[in-house]
């Protein structure tokens, strides 16, 4: 157990916003059932989730493999997205940005636009069934050739206003500097696509500085290793960069040794703009409500902190301003009581 949450409030009914969750790390058992795989709970946990604390990144990646394997057909992508929205709704999420790397779903022969057609079909079904709103972020991968990543940027441009709200840089941070993908994100900026980028998780302040200088994202996925440099923290704050923080995920892969030493509370107290996210709902396994209980148990977070960070998430969501106003009002109403 990462944190004993006994006695903490149940946050399920509270409205929440999630900006950082991966489709291929969040495949639900219900989706597998709908796809004809009658897998039981114990077997599902064994195959599709990683240990709470992984001994190596291999332990973690081993759990993502079967999900990726399952998401290579149009029906699988549509159903996985639909079921993820239902799981988000059950968790009290009212707006989510869901990310995936389209070019990793082509092993069954799908073209990139076919991948998008399937995912957006599931998105529409899930939104209609639950009433929640979600946007898609398409991931370029550090360990993929820039030319392949450029196709993802052009794809995001083609599917903008049909579900896509922005693009992301993901993949192996420690082994692949962001520099190789600079022109990929120059193109994203040229097309006015909102950009977020994973950094400051597997590598430290230098990697964050590189991404800020070369990729120029509006948000950073994780960014928690900025805690190693006061200057960097000050710069992130001065630039109004938003950090998508995923505490349990960081501990699972060993970025921090235990929950109590995670810097999220210190970063929050220093006034950085940050949101709380699951990263990988199935691989963890985790809900946002459980993550909030852990923050409540470990750092004493209460309504004030949770509401403030949800409002920051909305402020930095890749959404038109008029949509943000409605979400903000729902958050204030839902956390006010
Ligand atoms: Zn991530």
TrEMBL record:
Keywords of this entry: Hydrolase, Metal-binding, Zinc
Pfam families the record matches:
A_deaminase (PF00962)
What does the entry list under GO cellular component?
Answer: cytosol
**What NCBIfam families does its record include?**
aden_deam (TIGR01430)
What are the Adenosine deaminase domain coordinates in residue numbering?
15-331
Q: What name does this protein carry?
A: adenosine deaminase
EC number(s) of the enzyme?
3.5.4.4
> What is the native source organism of this protein?
Pleomorphomonas diazotrophica
Q: Which Gene3D superfamilies match?
A: Metal-dependent hydrolases
UniProt key word rRNA-binding: no
GO MF terms, alphabetically ordered: adenosine deaminase activity; metal ion binding
